[in-house]
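Handout, section 4.2: multi-component inputs.
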Amino acid sequence: MALWMKSFLVVCSILISETSLAKNMILIIGDGMDDQQITAARNYLHGAQGSTILDTLPVRGAVQVLTQDETQPKTPLYVADSANSATAMATGVSTSIGRIGTSANADKDLTNLTELAIKKGLKTGLVSTAAITDATPAAFVAHVNQRGCQSPKRMDQYESYGDLVIDCALDLKSNGGLGSISEQLVDSQIDVLLGGGAKFFKLKNESKSQTLIEQAQLNGFDVAFDFDSAQNSDENKKLLGVFDKKHLEVKWQGTGGRVAEKPQFSILNWFHKYLGSVSLPDEMKCEPNPEYAQRNTPSLKAMSELALTRLHNKGGFFLMIESASIDKQSHKRNPCGSIGEAEQLFETVQLALDFAKDNPDTLILVTADHGQAAQIIPNGSMFNAYGVPISTPGAIARLQTPEGGVMAINYATNEFSHEEHTGVNVPLFANQNVKDKNGEDLIKPLIQQRDIFSLVKTYLEL
Amino acid sequence: MALWMKSFLVVCSILISETSLAKNMILIIGDGMDDQQITAARNYLHGAQGSTILDTLPVRGAVQVLTQDETQPKTPLYVADSANSATAMATGVSTSIGRIGTSANADKDLTNLTELAIKKGLKTGLVSTAAITDATPAAFVAHVNQRGCQSPKRMDQYESYGDLVIDCALDLKSNGGLGSISEQLVDSQIDVLLGGGAKFFKLKNESKSQTLIEQAQLNGFDVAFDFDSAQNSDENKKLLGVFDKKHLEVKWQGTGGRVAEKPQFSILNWFHKYLGSVSLPDEMKCEPNPEYAQRNTPSLKAMSELALTRLHNKGGFFLMIESASIDKQSHKRNPCGSIGEAEQLFETVQLALDFAKDNPDTLILVTADHGQAAQIIPNGSMFNAYGVPISTPGAIARLQTPEGGVMAINYATNEFSHEEHTGVNVPLFANQNVKDKNGEDLIKPLIQQRDIFSLVKTYLEL
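Output:
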């Protein structure tokens, strides 16, 4: 065959592989985004009769979240944290609270989706509004025994809380481990890492020979500390963009920074719960969080758009995008914070759908990692007619919605500075179903969280 | 044409209409059965890795629950009660709290599904573990301005609570109304009414001329006060079976009748929330509620089976079945009560699926009317490591699950004798999708609650 003919065929085969065989996978995780959070965001952003972009996706199911006991891994726990739930999605293995890419008790490293994707020659990326070393993105790269082993600073610590042992020293490179999460990120072959957590990379590595930033650069990363620099970074290099010290600022807050507050019962109520009266906190609205603009925070959508620009048209990719602070703001009893971060997720889902329109071989999965504390409750009480003071023993925020209603949100899982997660099954949304070899739908009405791993693996043929 | 030939063709046409055109609709409502309740029941009954019968249904979606303000019907409320949510399903119109088959503010009677089904010549039935006059079944028959207008006894009452006016006199027959809910039930052409609420039928009617039982008998009902009598009732008559004074007893309770209890904080904790210690309530198990057997309570499945026997093979039917006390037990902070009643619903869904296997023209929809207060939270706290006392300010029950775990359930929407509902969107399950004339699926990933009315109307061609 003539040389020109051979070259022509090679070009053809590349074009064919890029256009028909290259598959793209966008996994979007709303941290803590259970049905209560989605309903609250729908009510506020679109009105009770409106719908979010999630509601327009053709496939909807539910995901059962599994957690194992650390010392007795056959015993289930019924409430997860982001570390074990992200590990389930990333590796297909249900593990114990706090673990990142390792098995309960046995501490075995579990192969994750980005490792499989890289092995297959796909491009990979992780985007988060949290520190990029935080539990959710970390579980798609790293293997440590506890999410707290986040940077070299924590690595010689040993802590024990009852059954829970955090022994970061186990993961030290000098002890045969893979190092802290931030070290494993800069050692990785991931193409795009965007989020917060700059402070974890400014530290020196375990051998104290260089900072993690220097180490990242040696490993082929362009490192950016603001979004403009990230956009202008060398396209032929990997990209590590960390745009705030720790987690990125959130878009919204309540009026004047207010969060949910405790109802005030009158003194008479101290004597009996049916005596006296109760005052609910003043109503509030959601307003921009000034810190978000002041710190030039990139939106989740902007970061995701940059990631897509870097990953697409290169033979397929796996991209995980997390809206992290739906959860973090719910821990802090700040419903406006959560709603704003849900909106960031919705905008990003729209971006992903637009991308999929131009690139049909793109699977978009949207899910949450676990339930959160917020509950929409009556503004007042269903039992007001009884004429006794009735309100939550927790904290309540009463949001004036743009459509003219008042939506009351309750936080009452504890009285600590941070609310608890809940154990409810979480929703799953997809732009298409995933078929097995026999053409059968793999997204069933209920799946287990570790099935997310299998879905991605099947779709990308990893 | 010869007479025998004509007769043959008539028989043929009847057979064809019964076998291919007669459609059956079974709408199963789990009162308060949101995703938290389903997850708790799944964990307890089938294990965290198990699945309920609901999870095996091929169609799953979510339903947005809508409620209108009574005085300003264009203003939304974000938490429903069973009356307005059942009215939305039964009539396709979103209304205000407490209303049964009437519109917010204007108090217009709204046509419901059983009225349309009866008009078309279909058989109809309502089955509930609550009093059959309770909000959910009532909304499928009656039209009153408040759910409290349940029996003749309440009908001359007028009550006002702020904006809320309960003026049962409006609905008196002597004032041009349709009478109380129990009167409207005995006046109805519904073929099967099974549940509790005997006490509401032993009263004399508005004109004091006869009891409602006598009136029911005059209107063609066989009336039964125990399940044996109901089973042996005249098949050619309508059937009113009321098997307890008010609501039916529930199957399960917590150990020794215990429900969720408040954690006990030590005295030191009164001075500061991070001082002292906290004791959680003892763990418990679910056990049979002795009252259930003592009162010969029929199961929801048994009642539903009887209803199906009476309704099928008669040209199609509409049957609404409610497991009412998932909600009522959650109001009372009794997780075992709710789980047992969820199990009753699951058994009934299995019955319906078995029926649909033999009768393929059967649509089964399973949904909830609104969210409830229960939340699965950590057994202890995610933040135990901080060494300070942390627990819910509400009540907590810690259930030892048959698979060897401990599932903690939190109730903290108020400190009244009854918890509040929540405003979360609720799940919808179906054995098949409903198609419009163009073959398009009508059960979308998100629908509004009033769309349930349209789905049934379309399927049964009402």
